[in-house]
Amino acid sequence: MTGLLAVTSATPDGDHIGVRVAGDLDFTTCRTLILTVNAHLVQGIAHVTLDASALDFCDSAGLGALVTMHRTLLRIGGTLVIRHPRGPVSRLFALTGLDTVLTVVHAR
Description:
By secondary structure, this protein is an alpha/beta fold. Helix content is 35%, strand content 32%. The longest helix has 16 residues, at 60-75.
């Protein structure tokens, strides 16, 4: 499955940025997310909150991109928080055990 991914960023607050993803995070689109986050890192951002509430699909390449971002942020003393994944994406985090490695905050 391949699709489109929309990535939008909020205005940075100190060294924190909120990033929203919508659509499909897969082999063809994960580079868009990585480039967006990396652009913020070079501006001194170390803490990223990723709103995944509109993420419909994530494949192994998307998971790999999230793990890479997590490791990169940890290396610079930062954090990655993934907020509100839903449906199949939430189940994928649980199935792979990444919800125990990554900081994932589920909707209440």
